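May I ask for an example protein's residues together with how it folds?

___
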Amino acid sequence: FRRVLFRSGSFTQAGYKGSGPGGGLSFGEAGKFYKKFVDSGLTYETGLSYYTQSQAGEVELFATTEPKNAERVEQLLLAEIKEWAKPDYFSKTQLEDTRRKLIINHKRELNQSTEYIKSLAFWWAVTGLDYYDHYLDNLRKTGLEEVRAFVKKWVIDRPYLAGILVSPQDATTAGLKDNAGPLVDQYLSAYKKTGA
């Protein structure tokens, strides 16, 4: 199990008026990304998650794979990100499919009061209601050029945090070492000094 997090700006902060459907583009079953990672058998699943937020956002790239493949998958995922900026990586069909899925999900939320309330509260807190009110219109305006520009500015060659969630037995078998322990101890020590 692998997660790679990139700290990024928001689509709105970056000057884009669209809603940023880039996440769905990367793992559509017809796409290059899905074929390379899932159809090949290298991962069980892989994908990208991103929520626009008013001040920042996290781009989360994830994959589920065998422990022995974890480090290889990480390197391949990081290399693949650079491909996303190329004009032929994502197709207009993928963009339209992603838009359609996001629009359907949004409309489904509107028709389920409990989901609508949760979604409205979430978006109000992280972007403001203006963003939520214009979500569908802005989603329709976002093109492949904006997706590529966002990837170039906020994802390619940016600092990231990577983590592997694996059992101690599988970590030993795969030759993975726990390098988080010292960082956790350092953080907890600093936290305790604050008296919190």
Remarks:
- DSSP finds ten helices and four strands in the chain.
